[in-house]
Amino acid sequence: MAASERQCRDYLRRHRIPELLQRLGALLLYHRPERPREFLVEALERVKAGRGAEGEYPYLMDEANLAAMFQLLDVVGQGHVTAGQFREALKTLGLSTENLQFGDDANITLDVFKEEV
């Protein structure tokens, strides 16, 4: 791999550009706005405001959606899911599992699930 290509990949990874683009694409497909460009500009403004603690980060799902997903994973109603189930749920949503700090024996509660997703 050429040095310039490696620098480009490092830049994208460092700034998490692929994740941002994937999230924006998911938001577009979920909401299907009539004016997609304006929608994307507004979403990026919310990202900027959310990072500066001035607003709310644009989420694909609200708390009710996350609670329903958690209940689907916690089929026996134990109040927690395994770290493996949690990782698979994140992958299914197209979210990164790279920075998770949970061991394989960890139990993930609904509150932790919501916070992490």
TrEMBL record:
GO MF, one example: calcium ion binding
Domain of life according to the entry: Eukaryota
Gene3D superfamilies: cAMP-dependent protein kinase regulatory subunit, dimerization-anchoring domain
Pfam families: EF_EFCAB10_C
Domain EF-hand span(s) in chain numbering: 61-96
InterPro entries the UniProt entry points to: DD_EFCAB10, EF_EFCAB10_C, EF_hand_dom, EFC10
Name used for this protein in its record: EFC10 protein
Species, as recorded: Chionis minor
The gene coding this protein: Efcab10
